[in-house]
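pasting for the record
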Amino acid sequence: IGENANAYLVASAIRGGLLAESCVKTSSPAEAGRYVARILRQGDVVLVKGSQNGVFSEEAVSCLLKNSQDRALLVRQSPSWMAKKQKQFPDIVCVKPGFTHDYTDM
Protein backbone atom coordinates (compact mmCIF):
# COMPACT_ATOMS: atom_id res chain seq x y z
CA ILE A 1 0.00 0.00 0.00
CA GLY A 2 1.40 3.36 -0.98
CA GLU A 3 4.22 4.91 -2.92
CA ASN A 4 7.15 3.34 -1.04
CA ALA A 5 5.68 -0.16 -1.08
CA ASN A 6 4.91 0.13 -4.77
CA ALA A 7 8.40 1.40 -5.55
CA TYR A 8 10.51 -0.85 -3.32
CA LEU A 9 8.66 -3.84 -1.88
CA VAL A 10 7.12 -5.03 -5.14
CA ALA A 11 10.47 -4.82 -6.96
CA SER A 12 12.19 -6.70 -4.13
CA ALA A 13 9.51 -9.40 -4.12
CA ILE A 14 9.93 -9.90 -7.87
CA ARG A 15 13.73 -10.03 -7.53
CA GLY A 16 13.19 -12.61 -4.80
CA GLY A 17 11.22 -14.85 -7.12
CA LEU A 18 7.59 -13.78 -6.81
CA LEU A 19 5.85 -13.67 -10.17
CA ALA A 20 5.14 -10.11 -11.29
CA GLU A 21 1.53 -11.01 -12.07
CA SER A 22 1.13 -12.02 -8.41
CA CYS A 23 1.97 -8.49 -7.25
CA VAL A 24 -0.71 -5.87 -6.93
CA LYS A 25 0.20 -2.24 -6.38
CA THR A 26 -2.31 -0.08 -4.53
CA SER A 27 -2.19 3.58 -3.67
CA SER A 28 -4.37 3.46 -0.55
CA PRO A 29 -5.50 1.08 2.17
CA ALA A 30 -9.09 1.28 0.93
CA GLU A 31 -8.01 0.27 -2.57
CA ALA A 32 -6.07 -2.67 -1.13
CA GLY A 33 -9.01 -3.76 1.00
CA ARG A 34 -11.44 -3.58 -1.90
CA TYR A 35 -9.06 -5.64 -4.05
CA VAL A 36 -8.67 -8.35 -1.43
CA ALA A 37 -12.44 -8.40 -0.78
CA ARG A 38 -13.03 -9.10 -4.49
CA ILE A 39 -10.66 -12.07 -4.65
CA LEU A 40 -11.38 -13.73 -1.28
CA ARG A 41 -12.96 -17.17 -1.34
CA GLN A 42 -14.58 -19.11 1.48
CA GLY A 43 -11.91 -20.59 3.73
CA ASP A 44 -9.24 -18.05 2.82
CA VAL A 45 -7.16 -16.54 5.61
CA VAL A 46 -5.76 -13.01 5.38
CA LEU A 47 -2.81 -11.67 7.34
CA VAL A 48 -2.49 -7.89 7.29
CA LYS A 49 0.81 -6.42 8.43
CA GLY A 50 0.51 -2.81 9.48
CA SER A 51 2.95 -0.16 10.54
CA GLN A 52 2.96 3.10 12.43
CA ASN A 53 4.06 5.22 9.48
CA GLY A 54 0.74 6.42 8.11
CA VAL A 55 -0.34 3.58 5.84
CA PHE A 56 -3.45 2.94 7.99
CA SER A 57 -3.84 -0.73 7.08
CA GLU A 58 -6.79 -0.97 9.44
CA GLU A 59 -8.76 0.66 6.65
CA ALA A 60 -7.93 -2.27 4.37
CA VAL A 61 -9.11 -4.60 7.14
CA SER A 62 -12.37 -2.64 7.47
CA CYS A 63 -13.29 -3.71 3.93
CA LEU A 64 -12.97 -7.36 4.94
CA LEU A 65 -15.05 -7.39 8.10
CA LYS A 66 -18.06 -9.69 8.07
CA ASN A 67 -19.79 -7.58 10.72
CA SER A 68 -19.51 -3.81 10.25
CA GLN A 69 -19.91 -3.29 14.02
CA ASP A 70 -16.48 -4.89 14.45
CA ARG A 71 -14.98 -1.74 12.93
CA ALA A 72 -15.07 -0.24 16.43
CA LEU A 73 -12.45 -2.83 17.44
CA LEU A 74 -9.93 -1.51 14.91
CA VAL A 75 -7.29 1.02 15.92
CA ARG A 76 -7.48 4.76 15.11
CA GLN A 77 -11.25 5.05 14.63
CA SER A 78 -11.91 8.33 16.44
CA PRO A 79 -13.24 11.26 14.39
CA SER A 80 -9.85 13.01 14.54
CA TRP A 81 -8.03 9.94 13.20
CA MET A 82 -10.65 9.41 10.51
CA ALA A 83 -10.28 13.02 9.36
CA LYS A 84 -6.49 12.60 9.18
CA LYS A 85 -6.87 9.39 7.16
CA GLN A 86 -9.40 10.98 4.81
CA LYS A 87 -7.01 13.86 4.18
CA GLN A 88 -4.17 11.51 3.24
CA PHE A 89 -6.34 8.97 1.40
CA PRO A 90 -9.53 10.60 0.07
CA ASP A 91 -10.88 7.21 -1.03
CA ILE A 92 -11.28 5.91 2.51
CA VAL A 93 -14.83 4.94 1.73
CA CYS A 94 -15.29 1.21 1.74
CA VAL A 95 -18.23 -0.02 -0.28
CA LYS A 96 -19.27 -3.62 0.12
CA PRO A 97 -22.85 -5.00 0.20
CA GLY A 98 -24.35 -3.80 3.45
CA PHE A 99 -21.13 -2.04 4.46
CA THR A 100 -20.47 1.59 3.62
CA HIS A 101 -18.32 4.15 5.41
CA ASP A 102 -17.98 7.74 4.31
CA TYR A 103 -15.98 10.05 6.51
CA THR A 104 -16.03 13.08 4.25
CA ASP A 105 -18.25 14.98 6.69
CA MET A 106 -15.78 14.71 9.60
